[in-house]
Amino acid sequence: MRPYPRAARDVMTQVEGDLAKPALKKKGSKARARILDAAYELFTTRGIGRVGVNAILARSGAAKASLYANFRSKTGLALAVLDRREVLWTRNWVEAEVKRRATEPREKLLAIFDLYDGWFRRKDFEGCTFLNALLEAKTGGPVHRAAVRHLIVIREFYAGLAEEAGLAETEKFAQVWHILAKGAIVAAQEGNQDAARDAKRGARLVLEGWPAAFAVTREAHRA
Q1: 53: domain range?
Q2: Each residue of 90-136: pLDDT tens digit?
Q3: Is 208 exposed, middle or buried (0-12, 13-18, 19+ CB in 10 A)?
Q4: In this structure, are residues 188 and 195 in contact, taking their beta carbons and an 8 Å threshold?
Q5: 83 and 124 in one domain?
Q6: What are phi and psi of 209, to 5 degrees?
Q7: In the chain, N or C: fewer CB atoms in 10 Å?
Q8: pTM for the whole thing?
Q9: Which long-range contacts (CB under 8 A, 24 or more apart) does 163-166 make?
């Protein structure tokens, strides 16, 4: 799984294996797993729109009938890949690694950019699968809607950290923080390997200037 450091990949492989064990008892689940593995690798590195069904079948060694029996369509397969990406990338890498690197909420927020800095410098850095899917999918279509939902999960993580840090307007803060993070990813895709470090400088200014929740409450009472 390309976007993660080796240790994180090992953890994710174990987690994914544990999650998949019950499914292996079902008929056709081995073929399903091979198809999903192949699609995950291809979609996250090349993009959903650029990968055809035949490429997935060739990589997985599965029959076309198995793909349609398990996922109904390429769209269904894409949705399954995005769900897996949330488990592996958002939950088991970003969230877990940020919590491992820092203990204080404000430091956790800044640690996001430190984590991205290492990611951006990997030779196999491929960008954010959710952003890529969002931009290439038809607006309002199932893949587009799914990408939006998965991005919201990331934003909710930011909002939770903002609440722990005692910041005001946590949802608004999460929007701003996400804009910085997404902008850094796009800049890295343009070739700026320092994008995360540059974004972190801006993030510090945002964090330093953002009002605390108690200060907003106090001002409201005065009014």
Answers
A1: 1-101
A2: 999 999 999 999 999 999 999 999 999 999 999 999 999 999 999 99
A3: exposed
A4: yes
A5: no
A6: -95, -5
A7: C
A8: 0.83
A9: 164/105, 164/108, 165/104, 165/105, 165/106, 165/109, 166/105, 166/212, 166/213, 166/214
